[in-house]
Amino acid sequence: MDAVLALEAADEFRLELDLTREKLTAALKQCTETSSVTDWVNILGKKGQRYDMYIKEMGVQLMASEISACQAVYCLTVFMMKTHPDLTPGVDYRVPGESVFKE
């Protein structure tokens, strides 16, 4: 019986993950329609620079899609790692923390 409950919980988690992935894809598509992906590095900025409004807007859009601020940060980190694998986070660009999206 425990195995059945575990499998049902895993199925629910996968379904929730798929829905979150779809919402993230839609939010990223909407954000990137106004700027190219290569602009993301400049928009994120480097240490000491303020975050661009596009980044804050993306966080708001993600959170409006029932994604937490922590998940929004994680999604942006993965997005940057996939689109710019040659760049170093914190050196070439910086990913905002949860507090930036919660503003």
Architecture overview:
With 103 residues, this protein is mostly helical. The chain has one domain (2-102). The protein has five helices and no strands. It has helices at residues 2-32, 39-44, 53-64, 69-83, 98-102. Helix 1 (2-32) packs antiparallel against helix 3 (53-64). It starts with a helix and ends with a helix.
Any key phrases for this structure?
5 helices; 67% helix; mainly alpha; elongated; 103 residues; 0% strand
What is the residue-mean pLDDT, rounded to a whole number? 77
Distance between the termini: 45 Å
Counted beta strands: 0
Roughly what percent helix?
55-70%
Q: What's the helix count? A: 5
Instruction: Identify the overall geometry.
Output: elongated
Rg, please? 16 Å
Structural class by SSE content: mainly alpha
Into how many domains do the coordinates divide? 1
- Unreliable stretches: none
Beta percentage is under 5%
**How would you spell out the order of helices and strands?**
HHHHH
The profile of the biggest β sheet is: none
